[in-house]
Amino acid sequence: MMTSYLITYDLLKPTKDYSRLYSGIRAIDAGAWHGLESVWIVQSQLSAAAIRDYLAGCIDANDRVLVTAVAKEWAGLRLPDTANLARITETLLRA
């Protein structure tokens, strides 16, 4: 079963390498929603811990990542890229 997860992060080095992290997130879900600066929503059959462990290889040792399942109820305001967000929301409503 696919689960929707919110991924958020802090890259702490002055020379942040977003490309490695973004590639890692897109490897989990090519249609991931990235509507806010350090927030993505992905759909995956992996667990939150497995996603965290995978992304650990895409960031520096002092960076931070949080992966949490998204509940059916949520709200947003002036969010971009609503096409991908609608796809993810539709899956949540069917769960």
Task: Provide an overview of this structure.
- The chain has 95 residues and is of the alpha+beta class.
- It has one domain: Alpha-Beta Plaits (2-Layer Sandwich), CATH 3.30.70.
- 35% of the residues lie in helices and 25% in strands.
- The protein has a four-stranded antiparallel beta sheet with strand order 2-3-1-4, sandwiched between helices.
- The longest helix is centred in the C-terminal third of the chain and has 13 residues, at 82-94.
- It starts with a strand and ends with a helix.
CATH class: Alpha Beta
Number of strands: 4
Q: How do the helices and strands follow one another from N- to C-terminus?
A: EHEEHEH
Low-confidence stretches: none
Q: How large a portion of the residues is in β-strands, by DSSP E?
A: 25-35%
Count helical runs.
3
State the distance separating the first and last CA atoms: 9 Å
**Spatial arrangement of strands, main beta sheet:** 2-3-1-4
Q: What would the CATH topology be?
A: Alpha-Beta Plaits
The value of Rg in angstroms is 13 Å
Residue-averaged pLDDT, rounded?
87
| Name given to the CATH architecture | 2-Layer Sandwich
- Whole-number tally of structural domains: 1
Main sheet properties: 4 strands, antiparallel
What form results from the Cα inertia axes? globular
Kindly name the structural category: alpha+beta
Q: Helix proportion of residues, in percent? A: 25-40%
